[in-house]
Each structure stands twice: as C-alpha cells, then as structure tokens.
Amino acid sequence: MGSHHSEPEPWVVHRVRALESLLIEKGLLSTEVVDKVVQTYEKDVGPMNGAKVVARAWVDPAYRARLLENGTAAMAELGYTGRGGGDKMVVHENTAPIGNRPGVHNMVVCTLCSCYPWIVLGLPPVWYKAPAYRSRAVREPRKVLAEFGVELPPETEIRVWDSSAEIRYMVLPLRPEGTEGMSEQELAALVTRDAMIGVALCQAPAAAR
Fold it and tell me: What does pTM read for this prediction?
C-alpha cells in the first residue's frame, strides 16, 4: 500500500514558494491576496462543485445511481473532470437505519499522503493532512467523529476509505429531513466540505427542523 501514494515533489513545493516570495517581494502580490486565493479554493470553489454533485444525487435517483456506479463519469456529466478529480472517483453513500438494518456512515482518509479530489472538494484542510487524523481515523473513527461533533448510534457501521493517487473517495451524505420542498440550489447550500469527507452531517435550515 505504499508506492501508489504520492506526495508532491519537493522541488515543486520549493518552486511555488520561491515564486510566491518573489512576487510578494516585487510588490506584485501581497500575502493577504495569496491567503484569500487559498481560502477561496479551500472553502468555496471546490466544495461548491461537490455540493452541486450531492444535491443533484439527492433530487435525481437516476443520477444518484450513476454516481455510485461510476463517480468519475457522473461528475464529468456536470463538467467536473481532470486529474484533480482523480483518475477514478468513487462515491460512497451514507445510509440511515431501515428496520433491522443498521445505517452506514462513511469517512475518507489518506494514511500515507494527502491525495484529495480538489476539483470537487477544494484544497485539503490542514487537519486532513495531519498525522493525527490520518492515523486515528483508521484506528478509532468513532472517537474522531465525536471530536468533530458527530455522534452516531452504536449500531451504525462506520466505514473508512483510504484514498490513493489512483482512487479518490467522496462521501454522499444523508439528505437532512425536512428538506423535501427545497430546490436543488437550496439543497447544495446545505452541503459542506466536511460532510463530503465524512466528518460532519448535513443540517436542514432551522426553519425546516
């Protein structure tokens, strides 16, 4: 399980930092601008793409089936393609308990690197790349989820998926109750990056709860 994970080449990192330093030194960029661009891609642009995928799956059962069968192709239908989406995107669906069948909650980790489908999730948060998350999410996922504020019933099965350079995972969160009358665009606004990693639950607006 080692060679298929790949960290960015050190020279790429050094080159980016050198260019950033030079642009800041020449007065062409400010650190605030750099931080704002990074934050935009981390919290807005990427996750907004993933949220649209999730919302479409919530309202369109046929699309949902295609997404779970072939995540790469289904995301390409909405225009999200490229290496940042991974050579193979696999989507796992969270399910609620039905009768005697317990629910399933999925979460994503990359134990050896920071493989991450940035095209639908934005830039990886700092904690995702931290050794503590990468090791503990596999060993004690229920405890890690509780620290994120996600308390699941004891009978809910937790599945942890280890992303690699070849296969990148995304979670299809449960649609919150009370959102039946909401439009696809309104639903997308409820989907967060953390819910698509599997460390948060999507919440209905206060008015719908």
Answer: 0.78
